[in-house]
Every structure is written in structure tokens, then in C-alpha cells.
Amino acid sequence: MRSTGRCPVPVSPTARPARTARRLAPALVAAGLLLGAAGAARADAAGAARWPAFRGDNARGVAPGPVPLAWSVPGKKNVRWKTPLPGLGHSSPVVWGDRIFVTTAVSGKKDDELRVGLYGDIAPVKDDSVHRWVLVCLDRKTGKILWERTVHEGVPRIKRHTKATHANSTPATDGTHVVAFFGSEGLHVYDMDGNLKWKKDLGVLDAGYYVVPDAQWGFASSPIIHQGRVIIQCDVQGQSFVAALDLADGREVWRTLRDEVPTWSTPSIYTAGGKTRVVVNGYKHIGAYDFHSGKEVWRLTGGGDIPVPTPQVDGERIFITSAHGSMAPIYAVKTSATGDISAGDGAPLGGSVAWWVSRNGGYMQTPIVVDGLLYVCRDNGVLSVFKADTGDRLYQERLGDGSTGFTASPVAAGGRVYFTSEMGDVYVVKAGPEFQLLATNPLDEIAMATPAIAGGDLLFRTRSHLVAIGE
Predict the structure, then answer these.
(1) pLDDT in tens, 32-49
(2) Is there a contact between 421 and 449 (Cβ–Cβ < 8 Å)?
(3) Are 152 and 182 within 8 A, CB to CB?
(4) Could you say which DSSP state residue 72 is in?
(5) Distance between CA atoms of 191 and 79, rounded to whole angstroms?
(6) Chain centroid to CA 166: how far?
(7) Where do the H-state alpha helices sit in 17-145?
(8) String of b and e for 342-380 (b: at least 16 CB within 10 Å)?
(9) What does the pLDDT look like over 115-157, one tens digit per residue?
């Protein structure tokens, strides 16, 4: 992180009589420490105001604390600002410095249909009205909209699920570029002031239930930026692929085809043996590719056939989970893995996997690692916590009463883990080997998007607003 803090200029005691210097020395040291601490605090605040992609840096979801423990949006407690957003979107906000970027899709219909909860209806929404796909930039300190750009306008090329939107993919930024991905409506790259740099039509990206092709559910994989490249994962009906594009001009660096059914996961980055890899979730192909060439490094077949969670990299382990189907596995794959590590029945080969368990995986939420513990929460609110190095389960508890769903992924800061229910209640759990629910905080609105953390604030994207929670 870049520092904006300035070091105080020391005052030399040799310019004064020795006795005076001896008297002033403790005060000067104390003043220097205070000024240094203030400068460090400013630097930390500036550095902490970065959350550049889905769930921050490489989807880790952990930020320096503190952030508020308790708040109430209806009671206006610890609410710094609340800004209305048009349309519908489940994309998360991303942050760079004092700017927030978020995407949305505005239907031509007066009322957008959005049905949340625990249900199994696979039918898509019928809405053939003209939509506007919009990128919005807000001021982080005030919530004021600085600019917005209509990225695309037209009738959606595919339909969406009743629980989804046409703006599911979280944008990404490197402080110079902002990448907004709208699936079939294209990949669009702007500068920080809203000037279009380039755009790319990737064709129809039909993400839906592969068993029933007419069940179109909407694209959701988010782009990531790494070393001047945009990495995208496009697992769809038809020809699936993962690709790297040049961030400067959109030139395709490589594209690797995947024999894969539709998925909704975002790629992650890791390094092994000095080589950079792109790791992805999947059903036929969980695995990794070489960052520079796109060549396959390893693969693992099996798990849930509707993979959503993003791979979570922690040291020498990569945690991958899915839960549609009876197996519901959690895999702790070693970063040293190579080749086909499948055993043919969904179980991985032992040499490349640190540990794995079945029937404990998460369906919608990306897991999170905090202080050596892995937190995996299912869509019904059942939270399981494991030792990240061994896979030993420490506890299993339910958040809420089981009547509400959980889609947003958890984030963590200051020794606390924050879980957001679809109905807008945020459960704050103490990080540690024993379950302790510290607070339950209302957002007063449906919340499907994963929150961001920046500059000591929690940023929640609800059905119709972006809300900043801070003290």
C-alpha cells in the first residue's frame, strides 16, 4: 500500500543549552512519537481505502480494523451516508482512494422483479424491455455520485434468474483503469474519470442450468486485474473458456477452452515455485492455468454441479468448495499441485491435497480464512469453522432462524467476521475457535451483494442503495 503520511522534522537539542535539552528531550520524543503515530494513521487510512475487486485483494475479504461492531440503518446509528442507486445489481462496490465504483442494470419496466429466500424455482425472469447497463462512481467520504456512464443499452441478450440481476459481476480497478463486465453485454474499460478506453464484445455468454438449457440465470463471474492483464472466466452453455486480455488495449493475450458447464465463480491468483497461476472453480474442471501462457497446470473433477464460490488462497493451500448435490465438498489443494489430481469418484488424490471433507461445502458464499481458521457458511446460514491447516472442524452453528437465505460472502476486520443475510441482517461473529455472536445489525433492505471495507467503513450495496457504515 502506498503511504501518504509525512515524517515529522526532528528538532535538534544541540541548538539549546544542555540542561534545557535534557528537559525537552522526553517531550520531544513523545511529540515525535505522537506525530509519527498520526502520520502512520494517515498512511494506514489511505492504504486501507483500497478494495480493488470482488472481496478486495485476491478475494481474501480481510481488512485492517477497526470497523463498527454495531449499527442500525433504520435507527440511523453509525450510518455515514446512504445513496440511492437506480436499477438492480448484485455486484459489489470496489474502492480506490476516495472513489467507489459500482455497476447496475436499469430495466425499462417500472418494477424490477427480485425474489429472495430459500427456494428451487429455476425459471428465468421474462423482461424483454430495453435496459441500461450503468457504471457509477461515488465519493467515498460523502456518498455523492461523481459521475455515471451508460455502458450499454438494449434488450438483454439472455434472461436472468428471479434471484439474480443483469449486473452481477463486480468491477475491478488498479487506480488507473476500471473494468466493468456485463457478460453478454460486453467487457468495458474506463479511466478513473469515466472516459472509455476500450470495450470488447465476447458474444452471448449464456450462464444457466445445463440440465435445462432454457433456464437462463445470468452471468456472474467477475474480472480480476493482475500485472497489467484482465483475467476472465466464462463458463457458459456452449464453448467455455478462461482468458487473459491486455489491460491497456483489450488485446487477447491467451484464451484456453474449457470442457465445462456454466459456473458463476471468479478466478484467483497464486504463486508456486516462482510461477504465477490462475485458479478457478468448476464442476468438470476445478484447476489452475499458467498466468503467462494459459496452459493448464492441474485439474480436479467433481463436487457440486453449480459452482459459485471463488477459490480462496491462503499460503500454500487453495480452498475450493461447492454444494449443489449431495457431495458438497471442501478441498484444501496444495499450491504445488500438478496434473490430474482426480480419483474418478469426486475424491482428490492425497499427494496434491492437504485435506478434504464432504457434506460441509458452501453453495453461494466464498469461504474466508481469518487467523488460521476457515469459515464456510451455507446458503441456509449454517456456519462451519475449520482449522485451515488440518481440516479439523471446531464448531458448527446456525446464523438466523433458518428462514432466510445467505448469498453475500463474509468479510472480516478487527477480529470479527461479518455475514449478511438476504433480508439485510448482518451477523457479527467473533473470530476464533469458539462461536460467539457479537451483534446483529439491520440494513433495513434486501442485501445480496458482498460488502466492501475501506478506510474504516463497511460499504453495503442493498437492493436500492449504497450504504456506508462508520463511526
Answers:
(1) 433 343 333 333 444 559
(2) no
(3) yes
(4) B
(5) 30
(6) 17
(7) 18-48
(8) beeebbbeeebbbbbbeebbbbbbbbbbbeebbbbbbbe
(9) 999 999 999 999 999 999 999 999 999 999 999 999 999 999 9
